[in-house]
Amino acid sequence: MQWELVVGLEVHAQLLTDTKIFCGCSTSFGAPPNTHVCPVCLGLPGALPVLNRKVVDYAIKVGLATNCTVARMSRFARKNYFYPDLPKGYQISQFELPILEHGYLGVNDDSGSPKDIGITRIHMEEDAGKLVHPDIPGADYSHVDLNRACVPLLEIVSEPDIRSTGEALQYVKKLREILVYLGVCDGNMNEGSMRIDANISVRPMGQEEFGTRAEIKNVNSFKSLEQAIIYEQSRQIDLIEDGGKVVQETRLFDADRGITVGMRSKEEAHDYRYFPDPDLLPLVIEEEWIDAARDTLPELPDAKRSRFRSQYSLPDHDADLLCQSIDMADFFEEIVTLHNDPKAASNWIMGYVLRDMSRDELNSVKEAPITPTHIAGMLDLIKEGVISSKIAKDVFDEMWATGKEAKVIVEEKGLTQISDTSEIEGIVDDILAANPDEVASYRGGKTKLMGFFVGQVMKASRGKANPGLVNQLLKSKLEG
After folding, report:
1. Do residues 23 and 157 both lie within one domain?
2. Residue among 255, 269, 209, 220 at smallest CA distance from 77
3. Helix or strand or coil: residue 420?
4. Tens of pLDDT along the chain (480 residues)?
5. SS3 state at 26
6. CATH number, domain at 426?
7. Same domain, 265 and 327
C-alpha cells in the first residue's frame, strides 16, 4: 500500500521585546535563574497583567508578512493546565478569537511546483518557565527557572497541508527568515527562541480522511525536525501494517537516538477549559494601527531575492544564499555601492566570508572582523591591477585576522603585483631555459604544459606576476 504523509506545524516564536508580555520584567537571555521575575510572572495572588503594546505591534507585522487577516477584535483566554514551570496553573493565550487568521506561505513541492502552505491562525501568548535537570548521576529532581515565564510568544499554526519533509523544512526556514527580517524574533533555535511542534499522521494514498496524529513537541533544529518526521512516518506505517493502531498522543524527539518517544496522551481543546481572561479587556485594533505597522515592513526575503536577480543579474543560487540573512544582504549591497561589481562581491562573500564565519562559529556577518569597506577596497586593488586574484586570497585572510584595510596590508607586505613586462619577461626566460625538455614537449603538441610553465613563473615571482602578462609572454615565446 502507498502511504501519504500529512504534517501540520505549530511554531512558537519568542518576540524580541525588551520586557515581558504582561509585566515589566526583562526578557534578556542567560540571566541567573529567577532574577527576571516579579509578582505578575510568578503568578502571585492579586497581581494583574498589563498588555505590552509592542507585542501587538510585532504580531500585526508578522500577520501582514504572512498574508493573514488581522482581527479587528481579539481576546485573551486562560488555558488551564498544571506544569511545574507554570506558576499560575494556567497560561494566558488566545483561543476562539486570535489576532491573526487565514494566511499562507509559498513553498515548492517535491516536484518543484509552487504550493501554498496555509496558516490557520497566529495568536499571542506567554511562555512558561523552564525545568533545569541537574547533570548529576542519580539525580531525581529538577530545578525551576521562571525567568522565561511570561516572555511573549507568537504561536503560528499551519494547516495540515505539508506532504513531505522537504516542504516542512522549506516552510519553517521561510517562516524563520521572515521573523528575523522583521526584527521580531532572533530565530535562535539553540536558545529556544523558536520551537516547533509537529503534528504527524499517515493515510492511504488517495484517502480524504486524515489518519490519527501524534504531536512531536519542542523540536529545536531543522535537522531534528527532518529526522523526527522521517522516523514518525516510518513508525506509524510499520505500526498500521503490523495490525496495530496509531494512538493520539504527545511524543518527544530523542535527538541522540533519532527516535520519538511517547510522553502523554494528547490533550484536546476542552481539556484545557479555556475561558476569557477576566483581567484583560478584549483587544480592539483600528485600521490606523494596521497601516502604521504596514509602513514599517522591510523588504521581505522573496521580494529581495527577486530584486537581487533582476537588479544585479545574480544567479538564483547567489540570490538565495545572500538573502537568507538580512544582515548578509545588506553587507552585499554596501559592497556593491562602494565597488560596482555585484558578481565579484557575491563570489567573495560565498567563497570566503561564509567560509570563515562557519569556521569561527559566527551567527551574523555583523560579528565578522571585516566590513564591506574591506572587501570593496580589496576589489578595487584587483581591478586596478595592483594585486592578482591569487594574492587577494592572502590579503583577505590577513584582513580577517587583523582587521587592517587591504591597501595597508599590500603596502606592509610588499604584495603589489608585478606588471612590468621586462621584469616578467626575465623570469619567463629563466623558466624556459631551466626546462628545455618541457619546452620541446610543448612545441611537439603537449599544449597542456602551459599550466606547468605558468605555475613555475608564479612560483618564481612569489605569486606577484601579472597572470595576464605571464600567459601572453609564455605563449609568445613558446609558439614564436
Report:
1. yes
2. 269
3. coil
4. 899 999 999 999 999 999 999 999 999 988 999 999 999 999 999 999 999 999 999 999 999 999 999 999 999 999 998 888 898 999 999 999 999 999 999 999 999 999 999 999 999 999 999 988 888 888 888 999 999 999 999 999 999 999 999 999 999 999 999 999 999 999 999 888 999 999 999 999 999 999 999 999 989 999 999 999 999 999 999 999 999 999 999 999 999 999 999 887 766 667 889 999 999 999 999 999 999 999 999 999 999 999 999 999 999 999 999 999 999 999 999 999 999 999 999 999 999 999 999 999 998 999 999 999 999 999 999 998 888 888 899 999 999 999 999 999 998 887 776 666 777 888 888 888 899 888 888 888 888 888 898 888 878 877 777 777 778 888 888 887
5. strand
6. 1.10.10.410
7. no
Bridge-partner residues for 157, per DSSP? 10, 121
pTM score: 0.84
User: Do 309 and 329 belong to one domain?
Assistant: yes
| Number of structural domains found in the chain | 3
What is the rounded distance in angstroms from the CA atom of residue 131 to the CA atom of residue 143? Answer: 6
The closest of 116, 103, 117 to 71, measured between CA atoms, is 103
User: Last residue of some domain: 391, 413, 435?
Assistant: 413
Per DSSP (E only), the strands in 38-192 are 69-70, 73-74, 77-80, 90-93, 100-108, 114-126, 130-132, 143-145, 152-158
Q: Which structural domain, as residue segments, surrounds residue 453?
A: 421-479
Looking at the structure, do residues 336 and 187 belong to the same domain, yes or no? no
155 and 13 in one domain? yes
Q: Are residues 102 and 239 in the same domain?
A: yes
